[in-house]
Amino acid sequence: MVKRLIFDVDNTLIPWKEEYKETLRVLTIKYNVFDYFEGIDRIVGSKHAYNVLTKENLIQEINESFSIKLPITFIDELIEGQKHNAANPDDFDLQETIHYLSTKYELYVLSNWYTEAQSGRLERAKIRKYFKVIYGGDTIQMKPSLEAFIMVMQGNPASEYMMIGDSIDDD
């Protein structure tokens, strides 16, 4: 019997919109690397070869790809800006649906992006309070790693969980 639901964030709980790239665009201008905006955007939005998404891994990948020397604060500022990229805070359908589900199931988030950014986005969408735990790719192995799902299950039987996401390959 399903007792717990695991949600992905992007394009599942919160639709991804092109306007969310604005934080990255502003940062590439601030750090004088706007010529690399599209390439950095591809790296940020891609599946990564590493198991855990550390800030160090991501900034190293960006720097090596374009022979630049961005500081780790670039990633910190990106995460901070992305906290505000969320569904309309007045999306009552989303809030009512997640509230209803929280009365029937324990709710979890499993995302391949940074926990802090995703938690902030869920907070802005006014649904953070319904999730027991938010797991990001920076704190556990990234999906579709079996280890990521085992960590979320916390020793409970897999039959008690249902994953809800937008990718058959990752979720």
Commentary on this structure:
With 171 residues, the chain is of the alpha/beta class. It is built from seven helices and four strands. The protein has helices at 22-30, 37-44, 55-66, 73-82, 92-104, 115-124, 146-153, and strands at 4-7, 106-110, 131-135, 161-164. Strands 3-2-1-4 form a four-stranded parallel sheet, sandwiched between helices. α6 (115-124) links the parallel β2 (106-110) and β3 (131-135). α2 (37-44) runs antiparallel to α3 and α4 (73-82) packs parallel to α6 (115-124). The two termini are 20 Å apart. The relative contact order is 0.22.
Characterize this entry briefly.
With 171 residues, the chain is of the alpha/beta class.
Which value, in Å, is the CA radius of gyration?
Answer: 17 Å
Q: What is the overall pLDDT average?
A: 91
Helix content: 40-55%
Succession of helices and strands? EHHHHHEHEHE
